[in-house]
Structures are given as C-alpha cells and as structure tokens.
Design goal:
The complex is a heterodimer. Chain A is mostly helical. Helix content of chain A is about 75%, strand content about 5%. Chain A is built from six helices and three strands. Chain A has helices spanning about 5-10, 25-70, 100-110, 115-125, 125-145, 150-185, and strands spanning about 80, 85, 90. In chain A, strands 1-2-3 form a three-stranded antiparallel sheet. In chain A, a hairpin with a 2-residue loop joins strand 1 and strand 2. The longest helix of chain A has about 50 residues, at about 25-70. Chain A starts with a helix and ends with a helix. The relative contact order of chain A is 0.09. Chain B is mainly alpha-helical. In chain B, about 70% of the residues lie in helices and about 10% in strands. Chain B has helices at about 5-45, 85-90, 90-100, 105-140, 145-150, 155-175, 175-190; strands at about 50-55, 60-70, 75-80. Chain B is elongated. The relative contact order of chain B is 0.12. The chains are: A mainly alpha, B mainly alpha. At the A-B interface, helix 2, helix 3 and helix 6 of A face helix 1, helix 3, helix 5, helix 6 and helix 7 of B.
Chain lengths: ~190, ~190
C-alpha cells in the first residue's frame, strides 16, 4: 500500500492504529543531515581557527595529564608544553592524540538526535568519559612502545583509533536509548 | 536490565571479536584497497581543472602531482607521514566491526557489511579527492590551509564512517523513539 493511500485510510477511520512508519524517512534524513552539517561546521571551525587556540591548549593539557598518569605509574613522566618525557618513551602530543575529534563526533551525534536541550546537555557528561579513555589510550601506547615496539603502529593507528570511535558510538547509544527507556517502562 | 540495554551489551560483546578479525585482515587488504581508491580518485580528478593525481611511492608516502598547463609545470607535493595509508583507511576495519556486531541475523549483518564497505569506499574516494584537489587549488605548501588539508583523511573520514554506520543501522536501534516522535507529530496534525 502506498504512502498516500495509507494516509487516506487513516483519515477516513480515525480510530485505526496510526502507522509508525509515516514520517520515519524524514526523521532519519533530518538527523543524518544535521549530524553531517554539525560535524562539518565544527571541523571547519577547528580547521580554520582552532590550531592556535583550542588545539594548542588541548595538546598541552593532554600532555600534562598523560605525564601525570605516567608519573603515578612509576614511569617518571613529565611534560613540557606538548612534549611528554618518561622512562618508557618521549613523544609529542598532537591534536589527533587528544579526545578532541571523538568529542566532536559525539557532540555532533547528540546535537543531531531529536531530544530536548536539557537532555542534550546531560549527554555532555560523555565528554569526560572520552577524555579518560583517551588517557588510557596514551598510557597504554607508551607501554606498548616499550614492551612491544613492533605492534605500536597497528595499536596506535588502527586499534586505538577504532576503539575511540567505538566508545563514542557506545556512549551515544547508551544516551539515546535511555531517552527511549521511559517509553519502554510505560508499555512494559 | 531493559531490552535496549541488553541489545547494546550484545553489540559491545560482538564488536570485540569482529574488530579483532577486521584489524587482522585490514593490513592484508590495504594495498589493493589503496590502489582501488587511487584509481577512482585519479579518474575523478582528471576531469577537474587543474588536473591533479595522486600516487603512492615505494617508501609508503603519497605524492600529489598538479599539472599546471598555463605555467607548463608539474608541481609535486609529498604527504610525508609514514603510516598514511594505515591511518587514512582504518575506518574500513572499524566500520566493518560496527556493522558485523549489529544485533540482527547473520544474513542481515553480511548485507549491512557489503553495503557499508561500498559506502566507505565512496567516502574514501571523496575524502582523498577532496584533499588532493584542495592542495591543487591552494598551491601554497607553506600556507596553514594547505598543511591542514590532510585532516580530511583521518579525523574527518572517521566522522563520515560514523554517519555511514548510523545511516545503515538506525532502524535496528531507534524504533521505540520513532514511535514517540511520530506520536507527538500525529497529535498536532489530527487533533479535531
């Protein structure tokens, strides 16, 4: 049955159960477009103006926290701007090493999802979780570099990059489905 | 635990073995995949002005050539990261794992995976072409915009992979919310 004949039969018998598929395509298209636009806009802003401001501070702050974590783990970590030195390795923190890009993906997905402003603000609690997971990533890569240097490139560029995106997706799913759970409880 | 939470848990548990398999296969298929992407990119770029192309050099780096007819010269830029291919196309392994972990029947997962790989290939072609053509247009290796263009390859492509995942699997995750959203819309339209 086509969309038009479905709507017509609904109007003729208002007591009939509404078809939940009407409007679904528009909702999805709007959400995907909003995600792409928000993500594109945030990346463009970072691309044009973020290097000297946000990225520099994020790099330095990430380096400091990584050095602190390495120090706590007995690796004598210390940071000088975005350079981290430790007994395991010395490395520069660049923007791809921070939680900036996963956070941009997460924020874009939250903004795109149909929810109230309060619910979206509540979702921002996911950003500190991303920062903590990123810190675990950096520290683990230091240990991998020390003990399994041949695996460093794969761990760095494939495994941890993918896991960061997976954690981002998981956090968003947990938040988005939590919005559905009051509906589930009412109908359970 | 709600049904949705159980589905997410199944998804997370299925992701790990799917990702291990995808990450093991990824370095093996990477050379052929890169060749395919470059062939498609160069076909696309040959119809634009200025004409540009990309090729991989034996050291693993990427070289961008820009043919400037008016100046009768060919500008060459080298993207110097040693792990550029590994970093630029890793979304293939990630998206494969995300799709294969979706809590649906196996046949449906395979269908999602095939669609996802095709979609990701197209997105990679667009990202690499965008980066190369951007470099050809800017033509200033010392400029900030020129140096920042490779951001399209890694971080930007990751966002597109997430969008591809959302586009392909939304109907397996969002059904209860759609009913709520649509019920709000229907009250407004059909209330006498």
């Amino acid at each position: 049955m086509g969309k038009r004949s479905r709507r017509k039969s609904e109007l003729e018998s208002p007591s009939a159960k509404p078809d939940p598929t009407i409007g679904r395509g528009k909702l999805v298209a709007k959400t995907v477009l909003l995600f792409a636009s928000t993500y594109g806009a945030l990346m463009t802003v970072d691309f044009l103006w973020g290097a000297e401001t946000v990225e520099r501070h994020m790099n330095n702050w990430t380096a400091s926290t990584a050095a602190w974590a390495l120090f706590l783990l007995g690796a004598h970590g210390r940071a000088d701007a975005n350079v981290v030195q430790s007994s395991l390795t010395t490395f520069n923190v660049i923007s791809e090493c921070t939680a900036l890009y996963p956070a941009v993906i997460f924020v874009s997905a939250v903004v795109a999802f149909p929810a109230s402003l309060a619910q979206k603000l509540w979702a921002m609690l996911g950003i500190p979780i991303l920062v903590i997971v990123n810190l675990i990533r950096i520290v683990s890569l230091c240990f991998i570099n020390r003990w399994f240097p041949s695996a460093l490139d794969t761990a760095h560029f494939v495994v941890w990059q993918s896991l960061m995106v997976f954690v981002t997706v998981l956090l968003w799913l947990l938040w988005a489905t939590r919005l559905a759970s009051p509906h589930d409880r009412r109908t359970a | 635990m709600t049904a949705e939470r159980r589905r997410i848990l199944r998804f997370a548990l299925a992701f790990l073995p799917a990702f291990v398999a995808a990450a093991c296969l990824y370095p093996l298929i990477l050379p052929a995949y890169q060749r395919g992407v470059f062939a498609a990119v160069n076909t696309l770029l040959s119809s634009l002005n200025p004409v540009s192309e990309i090729r991989a050099v034996p050291a693993g780096q990427w070289q961008v050539l820009v043919h400037r007819a008016e100046a009768a010269r060919v500008a060459t830029y080298t993207l110097k990261s040693d792990n550029l291919a590994l970093l630029s196309f890793f979304q293939l392994a990630m998206l494969s794992a995300l799709l294969l972990a979706t809590p649906v029947r196996v046949r449906e997962r395979l269908r999602l995976w095939v669609s996802g790989i095709g979609l990701m290939f197209g997105l990679h072609v667009l990202c690499v072409a965008g980066c190369v053509y951007g470099m050809a247009l800017v033509d200033n290796p010392k400029g900030l915009i020129f140096k920042s263009l490779p951001i399209i390859l890694g971080p930007f492509a990751s966002g597109l992979a997430v969008a591809a995942w959302g586009l392909l699997t939304w109907k397996y995750w969002l059904t209860p919310l759609e009913l709520v959203a649509n019920s709000h819309v229907r009250v407004g339209r059909h209330t006498p």
